[in-house]
Structure formats: structure tokens, C-alpha cells
Amino acid sequence: MKIQFKNVCPNIFIETPLKSDVWNQDFTVHDGMRYQFRGQSGKGKTSLLSFLLGYRSDYRGEIFINDKAIFELSIDEWIKLRREKVASIFQDLQLIDQLSVEENMSLIPKFQSGYGLSEGKKMLENLGMGEKWEQKVETLSFGQKQRVAIVRALCKPFELLICDEPFSHLDKMHKSKCIKLIEKRISDANAGIILTSLDGEDNLGLKSIYL
Amino acid sequence: MQKLLFNHRNKFQLLIASIGIIIGLILLLISLELYHKGKFYNESSKILDEHTLIVQKKVSRAAHLGLGSPGFSAAEIDELQKQKFISACSPIMSNQFEVIVEINDPIIPAFNSNIFLQAIENDLIDISSNEFKWEDSNDYVPVIMPRNFLMMLNTFLSASKLPQLSESLISNVQMNLTLGPKSKRSVVPARIVGFTNDFSSILVPSAFLKMANLKFANTKDEFQSQLVIKAVDNKLGLLESYLEDKGYESGEDQIFISRLKSTIFITLICTTSLALLTLFLSVVITIQYLQMMLSELTFEIRLMLRLGHSIQALKNIFLRFFMLVFSANSLISFVCFYFLNVAINNRLIRSGIIINESISLWSISALFIAFIIFTILVNFFTVRRIKSQFHS
């Protein structure tokens, strides 16, 4: 999936001239490429991903997905994009506390062959979460929830994986396991990845872009 | 997903709205049913419309003393025809000779009785002109029988310990009219083509009565004691006042039924309005409940949309739920309405009011229309709310 940012700038930064590798620049993410957007807090990492995923539109400039301006995408095109082309790991995880791990996994609308619930369960077992499968999410620690969110995103079909600070609450061991899972999944799907990080991520062969 | 959206939700408001919908639907269905029954009550035997009256002069001592004619003169008829609130006025012809009706059929004992014949122009009565016409070459005379005659016949049969006759059965019995004085009697077969409560004489086509009066009474001078007068729409009141002033009178039954129907219809319009108001408020409460539910589920709906669920798929979950609720309410309402309708029918029949007992299409259609409107509203508000979450 090809993504182009053309002179994009969040509205909140319009008053204060902002210059980075992305803001107020032309920048392109090519098919299958791996990037990490780095920057301190408040530099607009999450905002950038929200613009890209169509959750927010409070910016100036234009974003193109596969050469089509996202303002021109119809609702059906967005649904297809969100369903089949993009998987996201949200910074706030977007899990429903009252539901079990299994039920949260089941919220994904369509599993492609080989990435059904059983595959998701295996991945969680691999991350030391096997016995938590039927447990309500509200009983889990943030780090455990983060692993559920990562696995849920990996179970979706995608061409681009978008991760907003996905390892922020993981210890080294679990982070390493998660990176291996992500590496395998994006390699299998021949997909690209965009990841945001405060300090930079040394794994996954990510090219750093500074905000 | 059902569990996520509907479990652990306080359904008290929905319960209140459902009770309102049930009450509203029962009221609506019963009002429409009674309206329908009232509208068509007496219609099958009614050959004069509600604006048409049979008018005669009031019987007075003067008439007995020969000081005033009980019949209408040509000038009086002419004056009536000139009134703006009268759209048609025609004399009722009567037989000027002796008439005997004879029933000569194996299924009932021989019966005969002197009767009166009357005729009016076909355009003033509501009956098929193909059925109710006569020409010289016809084998029989079509007649419209007063219901009183059938009741009298059945009284006779009961007294003879014989089974009574229904309208359809008597329509097929062999009946003859014996016309004229003994010296030149003629027998004409007759066939019943309808029944009426508006007239107490047997109605025959005017062409037949004209011919018979000429042939058996040898007269063209008809004594016109009754007129059929049709009022212009909504001017029946003016006509009644005019008739009162002139010393004419009309059949009280006709006016009474017409006024009774008007009163019942006004009452039913009030009940229908109340039913619609109850339904409207209940649906508003239901829609508010839906809005509140969608508002409380903002996070969940947003997540579903972010994961790639379509607006249509999410909307269908809510639509199915509310359609199920409305269907259950409709079913309860219909069952209650059915038993209420049976009870009302029994009560009316016990009071001697014969009505059509089957449930009218109006009621079924009203239920269907209410369901469609409810579905459209739920669909509209759900889609609007979910759509507003799509880019957030």
C-alpha cells in the first residue's frame, strides 16, 4: 500500500511553524516498507496515525492512499481498507473490559484462512497468555492487555500494520516474543509496517522518520 | 456481539415504551375495526345513500276532512327541485291495482299475501342497473324485498314449525306476482335481486310499474304520496329544516341511523387520535432509548467501525432487536384486540345489531403500516448515529 503525505500539518501546529521529516513536507510510504516515526511526546505521532486511518481530519494538507486522496474515499472504500488492508494496534489498546480475551478477539469481522481464533489462541499461548483465554480483559494487567491487542491486530488480514507505541508496557522477554510474532506475520503477508516510538525501535528493520 | 450491545442494559424505559405501544396499537386496531363495522353497518341492505331521504306529508286532521291533499302536487315537486340544497327529487310510484305475492315452492308451504309495489328512478338507488331493469320481453320481474317481509315470512314458518329461510335461500324460491282485479288477473314470475331496510314495500323497476298501472288500473294519473329527495353533500341539515317548515316528514330510522353513525364516528375519530398520540409518544420513547443505547455504546461502535465492520452490519443488529421488540408488542396487541373484538361482536349481536364478525383488512393494514413506519424510524436514527462515529 502506497501512502503519501503532502504538506500535512495538524491544525494545532499551524500557528507555530513546524518542520520535520513529515510535517509540512512531501513524504511517501511505499508498498511493503517498514518505518518508525520517532519523536518526543506531543510531536503528533498518534495524530499522524489518526489522520491516516481517517479517525481525525483536523489537519491541513493532503494524504493519499494508493494515489487517492483520503477525503475522496467513500465509506465503502474505508470499510474495505479497515477490514482487509490495514491492521492497527492502538495506543489505548481499544479492548472491551467487560468481554473475555476470546470475545475481544472475536470482534474482528473477518478472519482470513489460517488466522482464525485458534491461530490467535496459539499466538497468545506463545506469549504466556494461554490460561487467560476465557478471562475478562478487565482482570488483566496493562502489559497483558497489550499482548491481546497485538495478537488481535495480527489475526486480521492486512497489507499495512500500524502500531502506536505497541511495546510501551512490555518487559524485554515479552517484547522480544511479540517482535518475533510481528516479524513472522508481516513477512508472511508481505506487508509494510508503520510504528511510532518515543526512543526508537532497533528491531524489525525499521527506517526512522523523525517528527 | 449481541452480548456486547444488549446485555446488562437497563430495559425499564423500553418496557414502558412497549406498554405504550401495546396500548396504542390495541386502541388503534379496535377503533379502526369499529369504524369499519360502523361504516358498513346496514350498507348491504341500504339502497339509498346517507344524503337521500324518503319524504311524505305529515298526516293531519285537515287531510282526513278533505281540506288538504296528502299527496304532492306537481307545483310542490317543482318547488322542491328548485332548492339549492336538493340535488335530486323524484316521486315514488305506487301500484294503482291489487297485487298478491305468492310463494309456490316445494321447500316451504304455499303462502300468499296482498302487498304494495313501489318504484323509483334507478339513478336514486344504489343497485346494479343490469340486475334491476325490466323490459316487455323479460321472463320475470326483478324485485327488491323489504327485510320486514322476510321477517314476517319467517314468523309464519316458525309458527308452522318449519325451518326459517335465509336471504340466499329465499332468493331462489319460486315466487309469483298476481296483478290486477279478479276480472283480468295476470301472473308474473318474480325474482329477488336484493333486500332493503329503507322501504317497506316491494320495489320493482319503474318501467314495469308504469306498464302495470296503465294495463291494470288504466291510469296515467299517479297519486304521489312519497318522494325521494337527495340533498347536496353536507346540506342534509338544511334539507331537514326545510322539510320541517313545509310540514313534510322523513323516515326517522334513516335520520336516526345517520346521526348515530356520525356520533359514533366522531367518538372513534377521538379514540383513533388518542391511539395515534399514544403510539407516537411510545415510539418517541423507544427512539430515545435507542439513541441513549447508541450513545452509551459509542466506544464499542467506534471500535467495531475501526476494526472494519460495516455501518450496515452494525445497524442490522439494532434494527433486528427493535423489530423483534415491535413484533412481540404487535403480537400481544393483536391477541388482545382479537379477544376484545370477539367480546364486542358478541355484545352487539346480543343487542340485535348484526355486523360482520371477521377482522377487517384495515386493522391488519394499520398494524403493517405501523411496523413499516417504526422500522424506517429505527433504521434512520441508527444509521445516522453510527455514521457520525465513522470518522472518529
Q: Can you summarize this structure?
A:
The complex is a heterodimer of chains A (211) and B (392). Chain A is α/β, with parallel strands linked by helices and 211 residues long.
What's the CATH H-level superfamily name of chain A?
P-loop containing nucleotide triphosphate hydrolases
Specify the structural class of chain A: alpha/beta
Give, in spatial order, the strands making up the sheet with the most strands of chain A.
6-7-8-3-9
Would you tell me which CATH topology of chain A applies? Answer: Rossmann fold
**Which stretches of chain A of 5+ consecutive residues score pLDDT under 50?**
none
Number of domains of chain A: 1
The major β-sheet of chain B equals: 5 strands, mixed
What kind of sheet is the major sheet of chain A? 5 strands, parallel
Percent of residues in helices of chain B comes to: 40-55%
CATH architecture of chain A: 3-Layer(aba) Sandwich
Give a structural overview.
With 211 residues, chain A is of the alpha/beta class. Helix content of chain A is 31%, strand content 21%. Chain A contains six helices and nine strands; from the N terminus they run βββαββαβαααβαββ. Chain A has helices at 45-52, 75-85, 101-105, 117-126, 142-155, 172-189; strands spanning 3-10, 26-29, 34-38, 59-65, 68-69, 86-89, 160-164, 192-197, 207-210. In chain A, strands 6-7-8-3-9 form a five-stranded parallel β-sheet, sandwiched between helices. The radius of gyration of chain A is 17 Å and the shape is globular. The two termini of chain A are 22 Å apart. The model of chain A has no long low-confidence stretch (mean pLDDT 89). Chain B has 392 residues and is of the alpha+beta class. Chain B folds into three domains: 2-43 and 258-390, no CATH class; 59-88 and 224-246, no CATH class; 93-223, no CATH class. Helix content of chain B is 54%, strand content 15%. Chain B is built from twelve helices and twelve strands. Chain B has helices at residues 2-6, 12-40, 61-64, 74-82, 147-159, 167-170, 206-217, 236-246, 252-296, 298-307, 311-350, 361-390, and strands at residues 52-57, 86-91, 93-94, 99-103, 111-114, 117-119, 141-146, 175-179, 186-196, 202-203, 226-231, 248-250. Chain B has a five-stranded mixed β-sheet with strand order 5-4-8-9-7. In chain B, α2 (12-40) packs antiparallel against α9 (252-296) and α9 (252-296) runs parallel beside α12. Chain B is elongated. The mean pLDDT of chain B is 83. At the A-B interface, α2 of A face α10 of B.
